[in-house]
């Protein structure tokens, strides 16, 4: 009788605010999306303690180097929570993580994710993971595992944060970076899809200061028919597949890539240049999209004030041999990634000026932005 009484008593973990049954429902809802990212290299299914990936293909490499990166989406998730729209932040997560390992020329192999929430709502978690799975499928990355943790009392019922980690592989002789860069190399910009996932603390500060509601219509932000919240959730563009194709096509001519994330254009380019080199990035080669102009104006800021925070329309920078620069820009543009020249790597005496000298602990090259932005011409006009 004592045993029966115990079995019928309330679940003490549920009474503490953790619903393990809801977690099981969430896993069932996300299974199909996750399985779509699995090729024959993935062993086992969803729900194991660890994901398994068959690395036999690495035997074909002469000297395989594993590349790994981890990141989150930052306070962009606060906007997703505010408008109860969660199907795009997963794409942002893939962009922030997977495209970082592409910078060294690595092909992504697999990814894992972590979601912490105040209350586990299965449909919400499934939406987030479905977005991650879509991004993984687009970039050829297997989503091999993840974790959803319920933290009542630490996070509010509608609060969550997401993070992920990815692993890729590159042949040692093919690794991209500052060691390949030479004076005379062309620097190409590749268009962003908007804010991506950086600088949202400033975005939210501006929006709150102006009394803008996320449900308000935003006809000028560049997303047709969208509200402010929907426009600000425009997902991060994924560059993995076209940039790896560029590396395969141009071989030794492609020298370095830079993912324009936190820190802006100058700081991120400086990280992939060798010490002693410098680049003047010409602002007149592109026009920052409306979302940047409108937010800067709403915050009583000049666009130049935001250069260390937002990407201002450039998601990636490509450092490539001058001889193939035009062909590379044309190929990227034709493939749906508008690309254009913004500068040239120099190795002579640097002019006086306010340069970003390396970044994130890297003693790299020096970069500054010069000139004025184009008023209204689209960035695609800059492709040569």
From TrEMBL:
EC number: 6.3.3.1
Record domain PurM-like N-terminal: where: 62-170
First-listed, main subcellular location of the protein, grouped into a coarse class: cytoplasm
Protein's GO biological process: 'de novo' IMP biosynthetic process; adenine biosynthetic process
Subcellular location, record wording: Cytoplasm
Gene Ontology CC, one term: cytosol
Keywords annotated in UniProt: ATP-binding, Cytoplasm, Ligase, Nucleotide-binding, Purine biosynthesis
Residue span(s) of domain PurM-like C-terminal: 182-352
One term of GO molecular function: phosphoribosylformylglycinamidine cyclo-ligase activity
Regions that span the bilayer: none
Pathway as given in its UniProt record: Purine metabolism; IMP biosynthesis via de novo pathway; 5-amino-1-(5-phospho-D-ribosyl)imidazole from N(2)-formyl-N(1)-(5-phospho-D-ribosyl)glycinamide: step 2/2
Family annotation (InterPro entries): PurM-like_C_dom (IPR010918), PurM-like_C_sf (IPR036676), PurM-like_N (IPR016188), PurM-like_N_sf (IPR036921), PurM_cligase (IPR004733)
Catalysed reactions, semicolon-separated: 2-formamido-N(1)-(5-O-phospho-beta-D-ribosyl)acetamidine + ATP = 5-amino-1-(5-phospho-beta-D-ribosyl)imidazole + ADP + phosphate + H(+)
EC main group: ligase
Family to which this protein belongs: Belongs to the AIR synthase family.
PANTHER family: TRIFUNCTIONAL PURINE BIOSYNTHETIC PROTEIN ADENOSINE-3, TRIFUNCTIONAL PURINE BIOSYNTHETIC PROTEIN ADENOSINE-3-RELATED
Protein name from the UniProt record: Phosphoribosylformylglycinamidine cyclo-ligase
Organism the protein comes from: Microbacterium limosum
Lineage: Bacteria, Bacillati, Actinomycetota, Actinomycetes, Micrococcales
Gene name per UniProt: purM
């Amino acid at each position: 009788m004592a045993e029966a009484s115990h079995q019928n008593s309330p679940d003490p973990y549920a009474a503490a605010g953790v619903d393990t049954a809801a977690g099981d429902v969430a896993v069932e809802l996300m299974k199909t999306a996750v399985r779509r990212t699995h090729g024959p290299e993935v062993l086992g299914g969803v729900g194991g303690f660890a994901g398994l990936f068959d690395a036999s293909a690495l035997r074909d490499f002469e000297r395989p180097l594993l590349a790994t990166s981890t990141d989150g989406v930052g306070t962009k998730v606060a906007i997703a929570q505010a408008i109860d729209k969660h199907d795009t932040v997963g794409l942002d997560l893939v962009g922030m993580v997977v495209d970082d390992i592409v910078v060294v020329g690595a092909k992504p192999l697999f990814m894992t994710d972590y979601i912490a929430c105040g209350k586990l709502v299965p449909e919400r978690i499934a939406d987030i993971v479905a977005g991650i799975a879509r991004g993984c499928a687009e970039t050829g990355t297997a989503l091999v595992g993840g974790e959803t943790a319920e933290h009542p009392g630490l996070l509010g019922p509608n609060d969550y944060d997401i993070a992920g980690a990815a692993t890729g592989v590159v042949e040692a002789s093919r690794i991209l970076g500052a060691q390949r860069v030479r004076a005379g190399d062309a620097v190409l910009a590749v268009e962003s899809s908007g804010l991506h996932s950086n600088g949202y603390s400033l975005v939210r500060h501006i929006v709150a200061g102006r009394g803008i509601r996320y449900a308000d219509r935003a006809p000028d932000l560049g997303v047709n028919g969208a509200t402010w919240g929907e426009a600000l959730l425009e997902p991060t563009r994924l560059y993995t597949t076209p940039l790896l194709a560029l590396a395969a096509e141009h071989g030794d001519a492609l020298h370095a890539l830079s993912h324009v994330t936190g820190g802006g254009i100058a700081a991120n380019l400086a990280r992939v240049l060798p010490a002693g080199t410098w680049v003047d990035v010409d602002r007149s080669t592109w026009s920052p999209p409306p979302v940047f102009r409108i937010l800067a104006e709403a915050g009583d800021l000049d666009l130049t004030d935001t250069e260390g925070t937002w990407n201002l329309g450039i998601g990636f920078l490509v450092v490539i041999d001058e001889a193939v620069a035009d062909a590379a820009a044309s190929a990227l543009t034709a493939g749906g990634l508008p690309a254009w020249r913004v500068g040239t790597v120099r190795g002579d005496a640097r002019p006086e000026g306010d340069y970003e000298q390396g970044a994130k602990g890297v003693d790299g090259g020096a970069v500054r932005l010069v000139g004025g932005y184009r008023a209204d011409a689209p960035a695609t006009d800059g492709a040569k």
